[in-house]
Amino acid sequence: MSLGDRLRGEIAAGGPISVADFMSRCLHDPQDGYYATRPAIGAAGDFITAAQVSQMFGELIGLWLVETWRRLGAPARAILAEAGPGDATLMDDILRAARLDPAFLAACELWLVETSAPLRRLQAERLARAPLTPRWAGAVAEIPGDAPLLLIANEFLDCLPARQFQRTREGWAERRVGLDSKGDLAFGLGPPLPRGGFPDAPPGSVVERSLPQEAFAAEVGARIAAAGGAALLIDYGRAAPGVGDTLQALAGHRKADPLAAPGSADLTVHADFPAVQAAARAAGAEAGLLSQGEFLRRLGVETRARRLAEAHPERAGQIARQLARLVAPDQMGELFKAAALWRGPAPPGFESL
Question: What domains sit in the chain, N to C, each tagged with a CATH number?
Answer without folding.
Answer: 3-17+25-160+210-342 (3.40.50.12710)
